[in-house]
From TrEMBL:
Protein name listed in UniProt: FGGY carbohydrate kinase domain-containing protein
Signal peptide: none
KW S-adenosyl-L-methionine (keyword) present: no
Top EC class, one word: transferase
Gene this chain is encoded by: FGGY
Protein family (similarity comment): Belongs to the FGGY kinase family.
Pathway: Carbohydrate metabolism; pentose and glucuronate interconversion
GO terms under biological process: pentose metabolic process
Chain segments annotated as coiled-coil in the UniProt record: none
Domain of life: Eukaryota
GO terms under cellular component: cytoplasm
Length: 512
C-alpha cells in the first residue's frame, strides 16, 4: 500500500436479542453505527406465568438481521461479532437438539423466558435455605433467575426434559455456542443469573442444598465449567455452518457474550458528556445510573468496592464494566405494562384509528393528546386523582417480592380517549417513581448517583424520559446513538477481533 492510501475499514457486527425482537448493527472502527435491522421473534404463553420461546426461531431471526446489515460490505472487512440477549434459559439434549420445557412436549418451545414465573414454589424453598450465596442477589433470589427454573424442570418434566438434557444455556451463551461450537459460558451470565462467583467459582454447597446436586456430580458440565470474560474470543471463531447461516465468512472472531441490559449499560454508562454543563461531568463514572428500558427496565450502577443493596441484585464483579462491581435493580414489566394498560382500554380501537390516520405511533398520539388536554398546567398534574401501583408482575427491586400485584386507584366510569391518555400518563409516572425508589435504595446502601443514562425502546418515548427527569429530580442523558445496546454488543466483537486490547480500551475509545 502506498503512503497516501488509507487502510481498509474495519467493521464489527453486534446482535441484540430482546424479548420481542432481534436487532443487529454494523459498527465501524470508530464506534459509528452504519446499518441497523430488526426482526420479530415468537413468544408463547401456554398458561398463566409460563412464557416460552424457540432457540431455533431466535437463531433464524439473528441470521435475517445479520445478513441485512452486512449487505454491500466486503465481508473480509468484518472483523468481529458480538451477541447480547435476554437472560432466558435454553435447554438442549446431549446432541444439542431442543428439548421441550412444557407439559405439551413441544420441543420447538425449548426456552423458558426470563419473565416466566412458573418456579414460585422452587424459589421460595431456595430462599428458605438462607444460603450465604443469596447475599449476592440482594438477599432474596428472584423467580426469574435460573436455579429455580432448573429445579422446576427437575421436579415437573423429569422424563421428557431433565433426564435427557445435556446443556442448559443462558440465551447469550447459547448464541455464542451456536456461532462457534464452543460451550464456554460468559462470566456475565453465570455471575448474574446462575450464582457463579468470579472469585470462587461454583459453590457446591448451594447446589446440594437446593436439590440440584446433579450439577456438582458431573462437574458442572451441563451448566458450564469453562467461563470467559465478556469480549474474550471463542475457539476458532465462526464455524463454516454458522457463517453460511449468518451470511459472514468463517473464522471471524466471536466474543463471549453479555446479557442485554449489561450490553446497554456498557453502551451508555461511560458516555462522553463534556460541554453539556451536566453535574456528572467532573464526577466519577460511579455517579451514573444506566437504565435500560424495554419490555422491562434494568437499573445498572457500578462501584469500585462491593456494595450490598437489599432487594437489588449483585454486587457482581466485572459483570458489566471490567474492574467495577455492578448492582442491578429492575422492574420486571415496564414497556410491557404500558402496552398492557393502553391496549386493554376500551378507547384503544379509537386511539389506533386516530394515530393511524395521522401516521403516528399510538404513543406519539397519546403524548400530543396529553399536551392538548393539560391546558395551562404541567402535564404531570393531570393525574392528581389517578394512581397506578406498577407491580403487575411482582416487584423485582427494591422490595424483591414476586407476590405483589398491580393496582389502580381513582377510577371513574369514563372510558374515553382522555381517560386512556391519563391512565397511560399515570402508568409512566408509576414506572418513573419505581426508578426513584430503586435509586434511593441504592443510595441508602452507599451509591452516590447524580445522573440517569437511558437507553432501550422506552427511551424513544419523550414522555417516559421527561417523567424520569421530573420524578427523580435528576438530569437524564440520552446517547446520540439511539441503539446503545447494539453498540455494547459490537464492542464485544471488536474486542474479540484483537483490534482493541480489551473491552475497557474499546469502551474508552468509542464511548467515554
Ligand atoms: N418510539 C417509541 N415510542 C414509545 N415506546 C416505544 C417506542 N419504541 C419502542 N417502544 C416501547 O418499548 C418497548 C420495547 O422496547 P425494546 O427495547 O424494543 O424491547 P425488548 O428489548 O424487550 O425487545 C415496548 O413496550 C414499546 O412499546
Ligand atoms: O433481567 C434482565 C437483565 O438482567 C432483563 O430484564 C431481561 O434480560 C429482559 O430484557 P428486555 O426487557 O430488554 O427484553
Amino acid at each position: 500500500m502506498s503512503g497516501g492510501e488509507q487502510k481498509p475499514k474495519r467493521y464489527y457486527v453486534g446482535v441484540d436479542v430482546g424479548t420481542g425482537s432481534v436487532r443487529a448493527a454494523l459498527v465501524d472502527q470508530s464506534g459509528v453505527l452504519l446499518a441497523f435491522a430488526d426482526h420479530p421473534i415468537e413468544k408463547w404463553e401456554p398458561q398463566f406465568n409460563h412464557h416460552e420461546q424457540s432457540s431455533e426461531d431466535i437463531w433464524a431471526a439473528c441470521c435475517v438481521v445479520t445478513k441485512k446489515v452486512v449487505q454491500g460490505i466486503d465481508l473480509n472487512q468484518i472483523r468481529g461479532l458480538g451477541f447480547d440477549a435476554t437472560c432466558s434459559l435454553v435447554v438442549l439434549d446431549k446432541e444439542f437438539h431442543p428439548l421441550p420445557v412444557n407439559h405439551e412436549g413441544d420441543s420447538r418451545r425449548n426456552v423458558i423466558m426470563w419473565l416466566d414465573h412458573r418456579a414460585v414454589s422452587q424459589v421460595n424453598r431456595i430462599n428458605e435455605t438462607k444460603h450465604s450465596i443469596l447475599q449476592y442477589v440482594g438477599g432474596v433470589m428472584s423467580v426469574e433467575m435460573q436455579a429455580p427454573k432448573l429445579l422446576w424442570l427437575k421436579e415437573n418434566l423429569r422424563e421428557t426434559c431433565w433426564d435427557k438434557a445435556g446443556h442448559f444455556f443462558d440465551l447469550p451463551d447459547f448464541l455464542s455456542w451456536k456461532a462457534t461450537g464452543v460451550t464456554a459460558r460468559s462470566l456475565c451470565s453465570l455471575v448474574c443469573k446462575w450464582t457463579y462467583s468470579a472469585e470462587k467459582g461454583w459453590d457446591d454447597s448451594f447446589w446440594k442444598m437446593v436439590g440440584l446436586e446433579d450439577f456438582v456430580a458431573d462437574n458442572y458440565s451441563k451448566i458450564g465449567n469453562q467461563v470467559l470474560p465478556p469480549g474474550a474470543s471463542l475457539g476458532n471463531g465462526l464455524t463454516p455452518e454458522a457463517a453460511r447461516d449468518l451470511g459472514l465468512l468463517p473464522g471471524i472472531a466471536v466474543a463471549a457474550s453479555l446479557i442485554d441490559a449489561h450490553a446497554g449499560g456498557l453502551g451508555v454508562i461511560g458516555a462522553d458528556v463534556r460541554g453539556h454543563g451536566l453535574v456528572c461531568e467532573g464526577q466519577p463514572v460511579t455517579s451514573r445510573l444506566a437504565v435500560i428500558c424495554g419490555t422491562s427496565s434494568c437499573h445498572m450502577g457500578i462501584s469500585k468496592d462491593p456494595i450490598f443493596v437489599p432487594g437489588v441484585w449483585g454486587p457482581y464483579f466485572s459483570a458489566m464494566v471490567p474492574g467495577f462491581w455492578l448492582n442491578e435493580g429492575g422492574q420486571s414489566v415496564t414497556g410491557k405494562l404500558i402496552d398492557h394498560m393502553v391496549q386493554g382500554h376500551a378507547a384503544f380501537p379509537e386511539l389506533q384509528a386516530k394515530a393511524t390516520a395521522r401516521c403516528q405511533s399510538v404513543y406519539a398520539y397519546l403524548n400530543s393528546h396529553l399536551d392538548l388536554i393539560k391546558k395551562a398546567q404541567p402535564v404531570g398534574f393531570l393525574t392528581v386523582d389517578l394512581h397506578v401501583w406498577p407491580d403487575f408482575h411482582g416487584n423485582r427491586s427494591p422490595l424483591a417480592d414476586l407476590t405483589l400485584k398491580g393496582m389502580v386507584t381513582g377510577l371513574t366510569l369514563s372510558q374515553d380517549l382522555d381517560d386512556l391518555a391519563i391512565l397511560y400518563l399515570a402508568t409512566v409516572q408509576a414506572i418513573a417513581l419505581g426508578t426513584r425508589f430503586i435509586k434511593e435504595a441504592m443510595e441508602a446502601a452507599g451509591h452516590s448517583i447524580s445522573t440517569l443514562f437511558l437507553c432501550g425502546g422506552l427511551s424513544k418515548n419523550p414522555l417516559f424520559v421527561q417523567m424520569h427527569a421530573d420524578i427523580t429530580g435528576m438530569p437524564v442523558v440520552l446517547s446520540q446513538e439511539v441503539e446503545s445496546v447494539l453498540v455494547g454488543a459490537a464492542i464485544l466483537g471488536a474486542c474479540a477481533s484483537g483490534d482493541f486490547a480489551s473491552v475497557q480500551v474499546c469502551w474508552g475509545r468509542w464511548i467515554a
